[in-house]
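B., you asked whether I could sanity-check this one before it goes into the benchmark set. Here's the sequence:
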Amino acid sequence: MVTQDHSVVTKWSLSVVTQWSLSGQWSLSGHSLVTQALQELDLSLTPLGDTGGHSLVTLLGQCPALVTLRVRSCGLSRPFPIPDTTPLQSLALSYNPLGRAGLRRLLRTIPARSIRSLELDGVLGDTGDIGDTDGDIGDTEGDIGGDIGAELARYLQQAGCALCHLSLAGNHLRDGDMEELARCLPRSPPLSLRLSANPGLGPGTFRKLRPGLRRLRMDGCGVGDLEGATRSRSRENIPEF
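And here's what the prediction gave me:
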């Protein structure tokens, strides 16, 4: 899909991308990509791999107006650095095999002052990648796998954090992953959180998280009818991610 205003290109999606070069060069239907006014770019399902991450860094430097970037299912297992001064506000990295270590690095490198929407569904792999169990990052209570929640809490508490929407669906998360996050929410910006399809999250996590969030989705988690009853009273307020 292409959106044009006279000669200015503002949006490109995968359907018009004809070639990706690992050197960071683009060819689109026989002509060069106009990057200066580009606001939205969807590269989902493009097999970038880890070397493609370097090219994404180059591309970001060439797109001073880029607000939305979607790179779902692109084979990225390492996060790519994003400049602190980026105009980027929405980043979708779902279904890339980051693993827990990659997710922790990502949360330490993306700029908190600009990113408003972060989609990270299915980035932790299968149940064999349920992560560190020794509480190596901020997990002072010793909760199994609680380091992910600690990294999320650290990210949200950065000065000027702009994050409004976070999706972590289908990541094999467990109750221990959410302990530190639940503790920080009263001191963090209002957040909509999607945790769907994490059956290891139970009613205790729901009760701890819900009071500190603007919106919470936990369909497909181990909360039974608890979350469904809450959603039925405020269904119209639940956003689509």
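One thing to flag: The first strand starts at residue 2 and ends at 5. Otherwise nothing jumped out at me.
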